[in-house]
Amino acid sequence: MTTYAALLRGINVGGSRKLPMAELRTLMAGLGHDGVRTHLQSGQAVFTTGRGDEESLAAELSRAIEERFGFPVDVLVRDHAYLKAVAEDCPFPAAGLEAKQLHVTYFSAPVTPERFAEIDPEAHLPEEFRLGDRCLYLYAPQGLGRSKLAEALARPRLTKGVIATSRNWNTVLKLVELTAPEG
């Protein structure tokens, strides 16, 4: 049995695409997953299963959500080892930053620096980004809402062909905690 986090993209934001977390838990339990828990209202669920892999579990959950709620939702599924590695590999001094200043964008597939070559890093300082394993770390000193770099990174042509969903540093760390093996 492996514990995973499901990261749902773009739900319960701005009054649209409502997906109640209690109903998500029921749906996931109905798919045969154990220990289903949700974190916040912005689309994180933790569950345990002994079948499937990240891609097949994400596809299954995405299909089930669309069938049940009537709208498509992109889903990424990641295990504890991956989530922990992302937190440990952070290239910024996370311990010395506020959670609103540091974000991780998780991708469904590896992305290369060439994808982001059009972005001039100097033009966005003091904001910075670094690529990791199927993720991007963003340091935004004034927070995501005021970040011009975050806006540039989210351009559709830069995320074309991959699912991308971002979480603040508190959520990154909480997902590591929630997926950790018991014992």
Task: Give an account of the 3D structure.
It holds the Pfam family DUF1697. InterPro entries: DUF1697 (IPR012545). By secondary structure, the protein is of the alpha+beta class. The protein folds into two domains: 80 residues, 2-Layer Sandwich (Alpha-Beta Plaits), CATH 3.30.70; 82 residues, Alpha-Beta Plaits (2-Layer Sandwich), CATH 3.30.70. It has six helices and eight strands, in the order βαββαβαβββααβα. Strands 2-3-1-4 form a four-stranded antiparallel β-sheet, sandwiched between helices. It has a four-stranded antiparallel β-sheet with strand order 6-7-5-8. A hairpin with a 2-residue loop joins strand 6 and strand 7. The model has no long low-confidence stretch (mean pLDDT 92).
